[in-house]
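Late entry, evening session. Most of the bench is empty. Finally got around to the prediction I had been postponing all week. Sequence below, unchanged from the version circulated by S.P.
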Amino acid sequence: MSSSSVENKQERPIAVYGAMAANGVIAVAKGIAALFTGSSAMLSECIHSLVDTANEGLLLIGMKRATRTADQAHPFGYGKELYFWSLIVAIALFGIGGGLSFFEGLTHITGHAPDERGNVMWNYAVIGIALIAEGISWTIALREFLPSVKDKRLWQALRAAKDPTTVTVIFEDSAALAGLLFALAGVYLTEITGNPLWDGIASMMIGLTLASVALLLAYESRSLLIGEAADPQVIESIRRIAREDADVVEAGRPLTMHFGPDEVLLNLDVRFRSGLSSETIMGVVDRLERGIRDRHPEIKRIFIEAESLRREEET
């Protein structure tokens, strides 16, 4: 792995550390509010923030393990560790965060939870503080991600992203902001109607929100784990670089696979101009590799094949 790749990986924790710190503090505040008021929605939000804090820790583990040097057992390195731990985060968010929040709300609605008590202003104060903290965390993550958006729409860029760390934080913080709004609505409606049903419904909505985000993250992690190609624009650029070389007659469709956010494997079929000597062909291969790496530094391993296209020419 190149030094620039390592530096990029060292920069990435900014959004994760910010989210982890915010969620840890917010979890304590929500827990205190739930203890003093008995609010089901606030207890669900406390569970949510605790799960998010643990998830950021899992992402940091994945980021650390992904930087390990390639060895005999893993000749392409450990970049996919990041995708594995992102999948674990999604499972934890779905099972623990979504499941417990939904169950807490259901228990509250069916009357098996203690009635709310204490000063409801605890809830409003904590929700207000949490909205500010989560908003700051969300803004930091979004600013980290925006340089990669380029000419895509934000949603398209999030779906196409190959680095799950900042994307996971954005989705988690978005779910957190939505959950806080549900909690605010539940607390307010319970206060003005005197009916705890609204608080329980808010808790269930928080659980459903977490489960939905978790399923989306799991789907994206699965795609990266089984081997996702580079961006279509990158693929077309590689083919264009090969075709523009004076000694190349034709270039097949590049086969690419992400082994990490900044590590791509490339296999390229090339038909060279007839009559070239072996030394010239080797020079062309070196020239193509330099041109591709200069334009796309994330492509770490390049395999250029000539045989398959030559066979097509013979047939």
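Two things to note before I forget:
The two ends are 40 Å apart (CA to CA).
Residues 83 and 223 are 9 Å apart (CA to CA).
Will write this up properly tomorrow.
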